[in-house]
């Protein structure tokens, strides 16, 4: 049985299939991954026993063993995975959802003012992530792979990375609140529904991305 006193980050490290369940309940396993499952559930007024049951069910239906485990990858391979899987996705998706959010806010903002706030939050998210990806790819990751920097310098840069992750986490939380957890209303048009579907996927992908950097990559340089 899954221990409710296990931290969120450790649950995802040991059982990657739990990430989707935690995301669905808005239990942040990356920036706030040091909380236990029980603590996080109580903060959100969730039934810990029910959530643990969902997590255990997800573990039982875990991914095929043939899927590579990022935690077992050598550091250069892990960094390559982060860039090709997560950074590339963000560079493609962020411009699209920023434009789409502005369109939906312009067309439907008079009916739901939160859509205008959402467009601003999405634009702010892109403004935070674009330079963040550049910093990781041009400064932090090369130093990690080639050992060009002193340990203190890498530690400083990891601190910058984690601070920026906290900012991103706050924006993701705001976006989830503004969209009722990315649930489009019945009257929503196709663009509206597409935006919410894309944001839901983006939200999950960023959580997994930050989890890998905070809890798999960074500890190797602690």
Percentage of residues assigned to helices: over 70%
Distance between the termini: 31 Å
Number of strands: 0
Provide the succession of SSEs. HHHHHHHH
The percent range for strand residues is under 5%
The average pLDDT value, as a whole number, equals 91
Q: Identify low-pLDDT runs.
A: none
Q: Describe the biggest sheet?
A: none
Discrete helix count: 8
- The assigned structural class equals mainly alpha
Rg, please? 18 Å
What's the overall geometry? globular
What is the count of distinct domains? Answer: 2
Describe this structure in words.
With about 220 residues, the protein is mainly alpha-helical. The chain folds into two domains: about 10-60, no CATH class; about 70-220. Helix content is about 70%, strand content about 0%. The chain is built from eight helices and no strands. Helix 5 (about 75-110) packs antiparallel against helix 6 (about 115-145). The model has no long low-confidence stretch (mean pLDDT about 90).
């Amino acid at each position: 049985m899954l221990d409710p006193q296990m931290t969120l980050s450790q649950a995802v490290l040991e059982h990657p299939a739990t990430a989707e369940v935690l995301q669905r309940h808005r239990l942040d396993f990356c920036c706030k991954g040091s909380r236990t499952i029980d603590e996080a559930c109580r903060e959100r007024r969730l039934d810990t026993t029910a959530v643990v049951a969902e997590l255990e069910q997800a573990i039982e239906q875990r991914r095929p063993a043939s899927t590579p485990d990022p935690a077992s990858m050598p550091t250069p391979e892990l960094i390559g995975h982060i860039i090709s899987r997560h950074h590339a996705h963000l560079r493609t998706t962020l411009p699209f959802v920023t434009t789409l959010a502005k369109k939906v806010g312009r067309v439907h903002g008079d009916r739901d003012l939160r859509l205008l706030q959402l467009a601003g939050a999405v634009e702010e998210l892109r403004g935070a992530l674009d330079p963040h990806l550049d910093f990781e790819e041009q400064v932090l990751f090369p130093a990690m792979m080639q050992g060009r920097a002193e340990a203190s310098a890498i530690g400083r840069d990891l601190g910058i990375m984690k601070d920026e992750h906290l900012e991103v986490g706050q924006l993701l939380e705001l976006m989830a609140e503004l969209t009722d957890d990315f649930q489009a209303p019945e009257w929503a048009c196709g663009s509206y529904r597409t935006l919410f579907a894309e944001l839901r996927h983006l939200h999950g992908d960023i959580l997994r991305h930050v989890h890998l950097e905070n809890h798999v990559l960074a500890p190797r340089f602690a």
